[in-house]
Amino acid sequence: MKRHMANGTKRGLILAAVVVAAIVIAVWAAAFVPMPFPFNPRPPYNIRGDIELFYTVKTAISTINAVLLVFLLISYVELYQKIKSEFTIALTIFAAVLLLHALTSNPLLQRIFGFQAFGLGPFAMLPDLFTCAAIIVLVYLAWKY
User: What's the angle, vertex CA 93, arms to CA 113 and CA 10, rounded to 5?
Assistant: First the structure.
């Protein structure tokens, strides 16, 4: 029992460290790394409700989602190796698709390919925030059982 708890504590500490590192890197990159916008330049006027803070927070949340989903995907693959259940395969596919969503919704990746979202205001980050809450529940359940 103690070994199982030590494993869970070690996993939790590693996950916390990776999430903190991801937040720091994402916020730094969103704030200070200039990205070219050749395909979709920013409009020459300010759009009401478009605050760069929302996109910085979206970048951090999308990065956290990606990190959590990698851990969740690893947990589901380990679980499948133990029990060989079709439901676990479905969970693995679900986590992989959510990981692709988290990666493609990250503003850093969008900037790399020359696209930029603007004018969404707080709606830029709210879907990722809700997704993050759902992923945290899945990670908790995966580690608890």
Answer: 90
Helix ranges restricted to H, 1-145: 2-32, 52-83, 86-104, 107-112, 126-144
Rounded alpha-carbon distances, angstroms, from residue 46 to 50, 60, 121, 123: 8, 23, 12, 17
Number of domains in the chain: 1
pLDDT tens digits, one per residue of 29-83: 666 655 544 444 555 555 555 567 777 888 888 889 999 999 999 999 999 999 9
* Total-model pTM: 0.67
CB 95 within 8 A of CB 73: yes
Is 97 within 8 Å of 105 (Cβ atoms)?
Answer: no
Give the type of residue at 59.
T
Domain residue limits at 75:
2-144
